[in-house]
Each structure stands twice: as structure tokens, then as C-alpha cells.
Design goal:
The complex is a heterodimer of chains A (about 120) and B (about 110). Chain A has no helices and eleven strands. Chain A is mainly β. The termini of chain B are far apart. The chains are: A mainly beta (about 120), B mainly beta (about 110). At the A-B interface, strand 5 and strand 10 of A face strand 3, strand 7 and strand 8 of B.
Chain lengths: ~120, ~110
């Protein structure tokens, strides 16, 4: 069974840091690009970051560039999102997603259940 | 940055055909993907590369991309189709992935 399970969310004060994890199972993890997508309460989907299958290339939304770092450990079948200098507007459900095929520009086929990040003082 | 435009809501009666448009600059040159998100759940890919369906997605869901607009068509609408629908593309000019604002489908 193909599965993505996010963890690491919680309540954090503005300006602090948080690391999200996404554990993958049921497929060859090191063959697929991975993404993070977020959804603020009552709002639509917003793409956040992407990483190639081997971690050699990374891409970021303008809203998080410089504050977030995506990474992956293919030996642990896990992708990470390190978030720093958190802002209230970063409050959202964060989903990790696997691309349908191999190429990073393919559709987001497999999604995790999401982990909630709340930035509040 | 690239923008995808969707109507906030669409409504249709059961058994009828619902069409959800997605507009963007030169969208015909891009591959458009569509996601369904039901309340409280993660999104589900229902159409990729303009018109292809992943395994397990009913044939009632179809997509097209021509004439300057991408369109998700849901035939024989059912109550269970009530959800938010998002279009999405990769913008090669900026290396960013873009979602439309989403369309809420109401089944009357």
C-alpha cells in the first residue's frame, strides 16, 4: 500500500522554527520527486516546495523562500521541511505529495493526510 | 507570477453535467491537472495532463484544454461529487507550481 505520513506539526510562536517530516512506504521512494503543499484554514491549496528524486534540485514558493528548506533522506524514505522565522500566515495544514511518475513536474498523485502547523503567540 | 483563475462556485442538479473552467495565460501550452478535495480530507488527483485519468477514477470525470481554457467536466453528477476542485500547472518560466483558487461544486 502506497502511503505518506506527515508528522511534526504543532503550535509554535512567531519567529520560531519547526521541522516537518513525511515518511513514505509502499513504493520506491528514491525514484520520485516530492512536494510540500499547504492549506491555510478555509483557504485553497498553495504549493510550498519541491525536491528532485535524488535531492539534487530544490524549488520554493516565493512566500517561503529563504525561510524554508526541503530535504530528503532516501535511506529513511523520508522528506523533510525545515521552517524558520515562522509567521502567523504560515498557519496551515501541510501536505506532502508524491509525483505521479518520476519527473518533478508531473501531477501530485499520492498525498499524505496532512499535519497542522499553528503559529500563534 | 502565473495565475490560474477558477469560479468560486458551480452548482448543478443530480444527473446533469457540471463544467468547471480554469483560465490562465497561454494555458493551452501547459499540462493541467485537477484535484478533488472533500471536506476535511486530503486532495485526490482526478485528471492529469489535461485529460488523462488515474486508475480508479470514474469515467464521469474528464478534462480538456483548448481555446484558452482548461475544463473539468463531471458527467451525471452525484451528491457524492460535492467537493472543492482545483486546477494546477507547472509554470516553467518561474519553476513554480501553481494552483487555481478552487471551485466549490454544489449538487442541488
Amino acid at each position: 500500500q502506497v502511503l505518506l505520513v506527515e508528522s511534526g506539526g504543532g503550535v509554535v510562536q512567531p519567529g520560531r522554527s519547526l521541522r516537518l517530516s513525511c515518511a513514505a512506504s509502499g513504493f520506491t521512494f528514491n525514484s520520485h520527486g516530492m512536494h510540500w503543499v499547504r492549506q491555510a484554514p478555509g483557504k485553497g491549496l498553495e504549493w510550498v516546495a519541491a525536491i528532485w528524486y535524488d535531492g539534487s534540485k530544490k524549488f520554493y514558493a516565493d512566500s517561503v523562500r529563504g525561510r524554508c528548506t526541503i530535504s530528503r533522506d532516501n535511506s529513511k524514505n523520508t522528506v523533510y521541511m525545515e521552517m524558520s522565522s515562522l509567521k502567523v500566515e504560515d498557519t496551515a495544514v501541510y501536505y506532502c505529495a508524491r509525483v505521479r511518475a518520476v519527473t518533478i513536474i508531473d501531477a501530485f498523485h499520492i498525498w499524505g493526510q496532512g499535519t497542522t502547523v499553528t503559529v500563534s503567540s | 507570477s502565473y495565475v490560474l483563475t477558477q469560479p468560486p462556485s458551480v452548482s448543478e442538479a443530480p444527473g446533469q453535467t457540471a463544467r468547471i473552467p480554469c483560465g490562465g495565460d497561454d494555458i493551452g501550452s501547459k499540462s493541467v491537472h485537477w484535484y478533488q478535495q472533500k471536506l476535511g480530507l486530503a486532495p485526490v488527483l482526478i485528471v492529469y495532463d489535461d485529460s488523462a485519468r488515474p486508475s480508479g477514477i470514474p469515467e464521469r470525470f474528464s478534462g480538456s484544454n483548448s481555446g484558452g481554457t482548461a475544463t473539468l467536466t463531471i458527467s451525471r453528477v452525484e451528491a457524492g461529487d460535492e467537493a472543492d476542485y482545483y486546477c494546477q500547472v507547472w509554470d516553467y518560466d518561474s519553476d513554480q507550481w501553481v494552483f487555481g483558487g478552487g471551485t466549490k461544486l454544489a449538487v442541488l
